[in-house]
Every structure is written in structure tokens, then in C-alpha cells.
Design goal:
Pfam families: GerE. Keywords: DNA-binding, Transcription, Transcription regulation. This is LuxR C-terminal-related transcriptional regulator. It is a single chain. This protein is an all-alpha fold and 535 residues long. The protein contains 29 helices and no strands.
């Protein structure tokens, strides 16, 4: 055996992709070694070279009378084109794989790979029941022929479809079993990377945040064992940054996102990761009050093909532009199909439409979010649902209901170890306590929230509950206007008529004013305004 070929195979076995690729480039490769060479190109983010090598392997297998190996190459070529959004060449290669299968007599493992193309078609058409049936057939085929990659791909897809169908416990068990296979090293490199990234992305989509945290740690270890891998590293960095953001390590999250260097722009996965990274950076910047930088990040995310909502709408709300925020969030919610896909949008929708005074829309969104939470085994969606209910109850002047819902949200966020969201729940608890006349408890809750916001660097939240002395005390321009009219003794109806607002919006502004000033009545707010020269 020639030295370069032997060296390339040894480096491949050690996941030393760079040296394996260099050695294979110098060697005379047969069809099987061309497949290994293709995999090294994939792991280095060289997608065009990956497809080219697979095409060479496909032709070599056909010439050698090995049509089933040629079929597998055709499938992976089609998969690569599909993933890059090139539907026509993808369908062409999938059709070639199907034609090769039709020539075979009897049952073969490769039938499972052709079934994957059927499953992907059902997925794109939203046919979840049909997708589940085909996925189960793929698993059975893989098990019958001892093809671990096929079993993992089918089981992952079956788990995803069951969760989307509302059978979360069954689906999540399959997802966890699939991840056992990948963490045990049972899968080929490309399939392992696909399973890692798809599973973590899916768990993020359905708000299985504990699983996101645990599997991201496993993905990080897998990437660390392959220091010169490129293909999945950008995705790993984004997932790590998301986990850090949730846990309150915002500075560390920005560092991770900053590691998406020029090298990590190679490969289709890393191209997708760039858009996600820009959005995640925008989220951290917004929470820290760096609004100009957040705006830039959201715009960059949009240019990279990543929808910048709901973060961009929440930025407009933080900038004191509730009408613009409402237009943004209503647009994206209207474009998003009902059910689980809207779970990521509805909490922001409730917050924004409440600020705009549309209590009916907020109530409808709260009901929908509650229905999603009831179908999904997700602590995070449950927490979001309770938090939205607490905010709505405050807007409806029902402090008892607000207190119950907000405390449940706080406990749920505590369990998830999400300090920022937990602190926001405590602000709602404080507002409910103030409306109930329990000023001491209100002060305690606000102090606890303030400590968390300060530690995180959440400047807008700090300023909203602990303004500097002699300043506007965290009040917006509109809140200053409302407070001045309150100090003149006008009713909510009179204020609404003067400022061309709804009474619900005036009530909402009053609740915010009471919280920011640490008071619990109109009389106390009026006295504060006169004492601090705000009226």
C-alpha cells in the first residue's frame, strides 16, 4: 500500500481531517477511498469538493459493478444539494438513487436511504403522520440490516414528528435514544454531526432547554476531539452562546459568537450559523441596552436570511416605539402557522400588544400559548405561558391572578436556571404586590430583581426599577405625560381623551409608573411628581 494512502486512512480513523485530506489528495484512490476523501472534505467545510469526490466515487462504484454503493453516494450528493437549497440537482440525484434501487432484487439496506427522500418530501409538505410512518419504516430497515446510521436518522426524524404531533414524551424518548448512539461513537462522522446539530436545533425550537444545555455540552466535547474540523464548529459556537445567554453569562456568549471567523464561514452549516449568530448577538446587545449595536446585529441577521423577530420588535418597544413594535410582531405572527412554531413569538407578542393597549389580542395570545404548553412537555413554554398570564392579569387590574401566575413563572424559570427571565417574573410579582397594598413585599421583590439585573448588566431593566436620583426616574416621555395629568387630579378617561389613548393603555402606563416610582396609589404618585419636580 502506498504511504500516502495508508497515512490518510490512519488520520481518518483518528478524526484528523486536515492531514487525512492532504494525504488522500496525493494518493491514487479507489471508490471506497474516494468516499473517505469526500468525508474529509465535508468535515473541513469544503462542500463543493465533497460533492465532486462523491460523484467520482459514484462513477467508480458503477464501473466496478457495485450499484448499491453507488446508490449511497447518489443519496448523499442529493442530500448535500438539498441542504444548500438547490432543489433541482437534489431531486435529480435522489431519482438516480431510486432508479438504482429498482434494479435490485430482494430487500436491501439501501432501501432505507431511498425512504429518507420520501420522508423529506412529507416533511416539506407538512405531512407529519406520513412522515412518522416512513421514519418508523426507516428505523425498522436499519435495524434489520444493522445499519446504525440509518437507524439514527430514522429515529431522530420519528422523534421530531411525534413531538410536533403532540406526543412529546414518546418523541423525546426517541430523541434521547438517538443521542445515546451519537455520544457512544456508533455513527459515521457526517451522520454524527447531522444528528448533533439537528437534535439541538430541534430541542431549542420546542423549548427543551435542559436537553439543549446537556446535548450542547456533548457537542462541545465532540468538536474538541476534532480540533481542525470546520463543518459543525460554527453551529456548536452558536448553541454554546445560546446556553450562555440563557444562563446569564452574556459576556461569554458574545465571546463565543465572535469566534465565527473567516475559516468558519466555509460549509453550508456555518453559513446558516452566521445568521443565527448575528441574531443572538442582537439579543444580548438589546438586553444590555446597547440598542445601536443590537440594531446593527438584527440587520445583519436579516441580510444573512435569518428572520430578526421577535428580537427586533422588542428592540422597538425598548426604544419607546410601541406602534412600530406592534406592526412588526403582528406581521410575523400572522405569517407563522399556528401551534408550536408560534411559541417563540407569542411571549413577545403579548408584551408588545399590552404596551399598545390591545388587551383582547393579548388575551387571545395567552390562550394560544397556554394550549401549546398543555400539549408540549416543556418547562420553558409553561414558564412563558404563566409569565404572559401574569402580565395580562396586571393589565386587567387583577392583582391576585397576576400574583399567582407570576410566582408560577418565577418558580419555573428558577428550575430552568434562567436568571434574567426569573428576575422579570419577580418584577411582575412586585407590581401585583403593590396593587394589593403590600409595599414591603413589593420592595423585596424589586430589590431581588434589581440585584440580578445589575449582575447581568441588563441596563434597561436596572434603569426601569432603580433610576438615578434627580433623573426622570426611569419614566418614558409618555409616562411623564400621564404622571403630570394624574398630578392634576384627572381620571383615566380624561387622560385618555387628552392624549388620544385608550383607557387600557393609560392603565398600563400607570402600572409602569407605580412600579418605577415604588408607589401603589395615584395619591402617592402625585405626591412623588410634585416632590421631584416632575409635575
Amino acid at each position: 500500500m502506498e504511504p500516502d494512502l495508508e497515512h490518510g486512512r490512519r488520520c481518518f480513523a483518528e478524526a484528523n481531517w486536515r492531514d487525512a485530506h492532504a494525504a488522500f489528495t496525493r494518493a491514487d484512490l479507489d471508490a471506497a477511498d474516494l468516499e473517505l476523501f469526500a468525508q474529509t472534505a465535508y468535515m473541513l467545510g469544503r462542500d463543493d469538493e465533497y460533492v465532486s469526490a462523491l460523484e467520482r466515487a459514484h462513477r467508480a462504484h458503477l464501473a466496478a459493478g457495485a450499484p448499491l454503493r453507488a446508490l449511497r453516494c447518489a443519496f448523499w450528493i442529493g442530500h448535500s444539494w438539498l441542504f444548500r437549497g438547490q432543489l433541482a440537482p437534489a431531486l435529480g440525484w435522489f431519482a438516480r438513487a431510486r432508479r438504482l434501487l429498482e434494479r435490485e432484487q430482494g430487500d436491501v439496506a439501501e432501501r432505507g436511504y431511498v425512504l429518507i427522500t420520501d420522508m423529506l418530501n412529507h416533511l416539506m409538505n407538512g405531512e407529519l403522520e406520513a412522515q412518522s410512518a416512513v421514519a418508523a419504516e426507516i428505523v425498522e430497515t436499519g435495524e434489520r440490516f444493522g445499519d446504525d446510521d440509518l437507524v439514527a436518522l430514522g429515529m431522530m426524524a420519528l422523534g421530531h414528528s411525534l413531538v410536533r404531533l403532540g406526543r412529546a414524551p414518546d418523541g423525546l424518548r426517541l430523541i434521547d435514544e438517538t443521542m445515546v448512539a451519537v455520544t457512544s461513537g456508533e455513527l459515521s462522522p457526517i451522520v454524527a454531526g447531522i444528528v448533533y446539530c439537528n437534535t439541538i436545533s430541534f430541542c431549542r425550537e420546542v423549548y427543551q432547554l435542559r436537553r439543549v444545555r446537556e446535548w450542547t455540552a456533548a457537542l462541545t466535547r465532540w468538536c474538541a476531539r476534532q480540533p481542525n474540523m470546520v463543518a459543525h464548529k460554527g453551529v456548536c459556537l452558536v448553541h454554546r452562546a445560546e446556553v450562555m445567554t440563557l444562563g446569564g453569562a452574556w459576556d461569554d456568549a458574545l465571546v463565543e459568537l465572535g469566534k465565527l471567523s473567516e475559516e468558519l464561514t466555509r460549509g453550508a452549516l456555518n453559513q446558516l450559523a452566521r445568521g443565527d449568530a448575528a441574531y443572538r448577538e442582537g439579543e444580548v446587545r438589546r438586553l444590555r441596552g446597547d440598542f445601536a449595536l443590537a440594531e446593527e446585529s438584527y440587520r445583519r441577521a436579516s441580510s444573512l436570511g435569518r428572520e430578526p423577530q421577535p428580537g427586533h420588535a422588542l428592540l422597538r418597544l425598548a426604544q419607546g416605539r410601541p406602534e412600530a413594535a406592534a406592526a412588526m410582531i403582528r406581521r410575523v405572527v400572522a405569517e407563522t402557522s399556528r401551534g408550536l412554531p408560534r411559541a417563540a413569538l407569542l411571549p413577545a407578542y403579548v408584551e408588545i400588544v399590552l404596551a399598545a393597549g390591545d388587551l383582547d389580542a393579548a388575551a387571545g395570545a395567552c390562550r394560544e400559548l397556554g394550549e401549546i404548553a398543555a400539549r408540549q412537555d416543556s418547562d420553558a413554554i409553561t414558564a412563558m405561558s404563566w409569565q404572559a398570564r401574569g402580565a395580562l392579569a396586571l393589565a386587567l387590574d387583577d392583582p391576585e391572578a397576576a400574583l399567582t401566575a407570576s410566582r408560577r413563572a418565577w418558580h419555573a424559570w428558577q428550575q430552568i436556571e434562567a436568571p434574567y427571565d426569573a428576575a422579570r417574573s419577580r418584577v411582575l410579582i412586585a407590581r401585583a404586590c403593590a396593587l394589593l397594598g403590600d409595599d414591603d413585599s413589593c420592595a423585596l421583590e424589586l430589590q431581588a430583581a434589581l440585584e440580578t439585573f445589575t449582575a447581568l448588566g441588563a441596563r434597561p431593566d436596572v434603569e426601569s426599577i432603580a433610576p438615578d436620583k434627580g433623573s426622570r426616574h426611569g419614566l418614558s416621555d409618555r409616562e411623564i405625560e400621564v404622571l403630570r395629568l394624574v398630578a392634576t387630579g384627572r381620571s383615566n378617561r380624561q387622560i385618555a381623551a387628552t392624549l388620544f389613548l385608550s383607557e387600557h393603555t393609560v392603565a398600563r402606563h400607570l402600572q409602569n409608573i407605580f412600579t418605577k416610582l415604588g408607589v401603589s396609589s395615584r395619591t402617592a404618585a402625585s405626591a412623588f411628581a410634585h416632590d421631584h419636580h416632575l409635575a
